[in-house]
């Protein structure tokens, strides 16, 4: 796969970036990716998305580059749910996004979001609320860096505690040194307790109610699992939800604000699910 520019006709490609993927090596993946590039260059977006999906399935691991291409291809077709899903995955640290790719993905995601809001207003569908500052905090706490910060803080605090216990408190400079060590110990201990607790709560929330995106353009949410159940409301494609319950073929999706309904499992894509499988 050669270095190339991200592209997208119409107003989607707001940022031009040069990308050099590091994860794709297999010939079959490279062939599928190149075929997708050719179709995209010709403006044949459904065919491009099909090839990119094949490359993604063959790769079997996260790739921000492929997710970005898929998101852009689906956006060009007006499939805002799948576009939002893949553009969000392009920002996942597991796919090794470059700074340029992340910037382009955020720009395209913002455009997709505005289109989804307009479509929700015209089709009487419900869309999730925009991310609040608290959502951004929770997303930050989920990052591995927070876990490492907690781990390092705990080890350093433990080392300082052991060192302080081994010291004999003496007047003068040693007393001042011990006071500084105690202050540092309490500070690191506080950081450790706070970050460890918040990181654990964030990961627990992801396990018990994983994040997902509504894939269909307009998905009917029912009062119970099954197509024979009463439709309560419609979810706009691209909305982020939490999966709070499951039954074969159906999931209970909860939107921001607490409103929830049962939707077909195939109509939602888990953001932290297997990246090699197309939703």
Structure commentary:
By secondary structure, this protein is of the alpha+beta class. The protein folds into 3 domains: 4-123, Serine Threonine Protein Phosphatase 5, Tetratricopeptide repeat; 136-208; 211-270, Roll (SH3 type barrels), CATH 2.30.30.40. 53% of the residues lie in helices and 14% in strands. The chain is built from 8 helices and 9 strands. The strands form 3 sheets. A 5-stranded antiparallel β-sheet has the order 8-7-6-3-9. Helix 3 runs antiparallel to helix 4, helix 3 (64-77) packs parallel to helix 5 and helix 7 runs antiparallel to helix 8. Residues 1-11, 13-25 and 169-173 have low confidence and may be disordered.
Comma- or semicolon-separated keywords:
3 domains; single chain; 279 residues; two-stranded antiparallel ribbon; Serine Threonine Protein Phosphatase 5, Tetratricopeptide repeat; alpha+beta; SH3 type barrels; disordered N terminus
Concise overview:
The chain is α+β, with helices and mostly antiparallel strands. Helix content is 53%, strand content 14%.
What top-tier CATH class of the largest domain fits best? Answer: Mainly Alpha
Strands, total number: 9
Count of helix runs: 8
Q: What global shape is seen? A: globular
- Low-pLDDT windows of residues: 1-11, 13-25, 169-173
**Rg over CA atoms:** 23 Å
What portion of the residues fall into strands of 2 or more residues? 5-15%
Q: Mind telling me the CATH superfamily name of the largest domain?
A: Tetratricopeptide repeat domain
State the domain count.
Answer: 3
Main beta-sheet annotation: 5 strands, antiparallel
Order of neighbouring strands in the sheet with most strands: 8-7-6-3-9
